[in-house]
Structures are given as structure tokens and as C-alpha cells.
Amino acid sequence: MTKQANLYAFPTIDALAAALRAYVISCQDAGLQRHGVFKVAVSGGSLPKTLAQALLAPPSSETDVIKWDKWEIFFADERAVPLDHPDSNYGLLKAELLDKLPEGVAPFKVHTIDPEALEDTQELADRYEQALVQSFASRDSVKLPIFDLLLLGCGPDGHTCSLFPGHPLLRESDAWVAPIEDSPKPPPRRVTLTLPVVKHAVRIAFVATGGGKKEIMKEIFEQGNGLPCALVNEGTGERCSWFVDNAAVEGVSYPRRPFSL
Ligand SMILES: O=C(O)[C@H](O)[C@@H](O)[C@H](O)[C@H](O)COP(=O)(O)O
Predict the structure, then answer these.
(1) Could you tell me the CATH number of the domain that includes residue 90?
(2) Does residue 134 form part of some domain?
(3) ipTM value > 0.95
(4) pLDDT tens, 147-205?
(5) From start to end of the chain, where are the E strands?
(6) pTM above 0.95, yes or no
(7) Nearest alpha-carbon partner for 195 in 155, 228, 230, 241
(8) Ligand 1: which residue has its CA nearest to atom 10?
């Protein structure tokens, strides 16, 4: 039987953040061993805040080290707005995390969307895909980019990235990055990594907290129902880990695992 996604549930966000930090560092160290860099993509929503809590914490040991100069940060999805707009996922990550890094510390590269192409979401997606091509080698030589880690959120309807339930974009099998003009969650115009790219990552971590998530968590883990989050679970098995608080999985019958690396 294929191994299933790991569900790690914590009593508090503090406990979740500590485990998330250890997990991200282990993905970083594996990425550095593999190819000398750490390529990670992050979502918007509540994720940047929890991630910042995890990553800005003081190190607890000599191996608990974030090597920012080796990080290449991408966006799992981004809204078609200027980088300084309140809806920008880059802007959110910057405000929550990047601006709070100690002086002199910075990721090697943060890949934002190209603000010159905001008027045309297809062009915006194509340019972001080109940025991936440049980082992950030529589109002809690699079928799909392999991120070391994707850090994703889960919407109350079961969406992840900007991949929404029942949307035709879920069937995209060629593009690495796709535009969406009719996102049910505002703002409507966005770009997103496609499902094949999400499923191809070395590791995928979802972060979902709060009682508002428990109904959708039940559906994702008990029925699946073709929800985007469930498609990621089913397509990635044990490469996929969920970091949740107890409130988000109250009443969900799916085995929790004690967190370990
Ligand atoms: O830009 C976005 O809209 C996000 O990337 C989106 O996919 C988000 O991660 C989920 O909607 C969960 O958001 P919450 O964590 O705020 O529930």
C-alpha cells in the first residue's frame, strides 16, 4: 500500500511553529546536499505569519541553522497586483518575514512576478515560468521543476495555491505556471503553480490552523472528493505533511503521527 500523507497535530501554534522550523531546516539541509541550494515556494494567506514565527525563532542548537544565503524563494501562487499592493503575496512575505530578518541576512534570491506584465495574466504566468526555467534548467531538459519544498495553505473550500475545486486549471498538464482570471477568492486575477509541478516537489507541507478549517479537513482526509488539497495528498503520499493545530482537525478520523524527522 502506498504510504499516506503525514498528519501532525499540535495543541498550540507555538508547538506547530517549532516543529515546522525543524522540518523546513531538514528540507533545507537535504536540498543543500543534493544541489547546494534550497528551492522553496510559499503561498499567501495565513502561511507567511506562521512561517515567520517558525523561522525567526532563535536557534536551539548548533544544527538548528537557517542558511538564508542558500535559499531561493518562489511563490506557489501570486495575485496579479503590484508588489507593494496590500494583496501581494510577496508583499505579505516581505512584511511578515523578509523585513524582519537580522541585518545583513537575506535569501540568495526571491523570485517575484514581473510587475511589467500585470495587464496580461497569460504573459505574467509565462514570464514566471521563464524564471523557473532559468533556475531549474531548460524546459526541454527537465519535464517538471523539482522544488525542495512547497509550503502551502488550505482554503476553506479545499483549494491550495490558486487551484480551486472543479476549476479546469486542475487538468492543466503542460504548463508549469498558469494564469487564472476567475479566482473565487479575491482578487480574481492570479498566477499559480500547476498541479503536476506541486506533485513533483521533493516535499510538500500544508499549514492549516483554526476551527474554521475542520469541516474541509474532514472532507479532504475522509472523502477526498477531488478537492485540490486531496489531489495533492493522493499524488504525493508520504512526501506530503500537514502541520495543523488540534482545532483544525477536531472530529477528523485520520491517524495523526507524532512529529519526528
Ligand atoms: O494567495 C492565496 O490566496 C493563497 O496562496 C491561498 O492558496 C491560501 O494559501 C489559502 O487560501 C489558505 O489561506 P489561509 O491560510 O488564509 O486560510
Answers:
(1) 3.40.50.1360
(2) yes
(3) yes
(4) 999 999 999 999 999 999 999 999 999 999 999 999 999 999 999 999 999 999 999 99
(5) 6-10, 38-42, 71-75, 77-79, 109-110, 149-152, 177-180, 190-193, 204-208, 240-245
(6) yes
(7) 228
(8) 155
Q: Please write the tens of the pLDDT for every residue from 123-146.
A: 999 999 999 999 997 656 678 999
Q: Which atom belonging to ligand 1 lies closest to the Cα atom of 213?
A: 17
What atom of ligand 1 comes closest to residue 154's alpha carbon? 12
Tally of domains within the chain:
1
Q: What is the pLDDT of residues 6-50, one digit of tens each?
A: 999 999 999 999 999 999 999 999 999 999 999 999 999 999 999
Q: Is residue 254 part of a domain?
A: no
CA 47 to ligand 1 centroid distance, Å:
7
Which of 20, 42, 47 should be mutated for ligand 1, with most atoms under 8 A from CB? 47
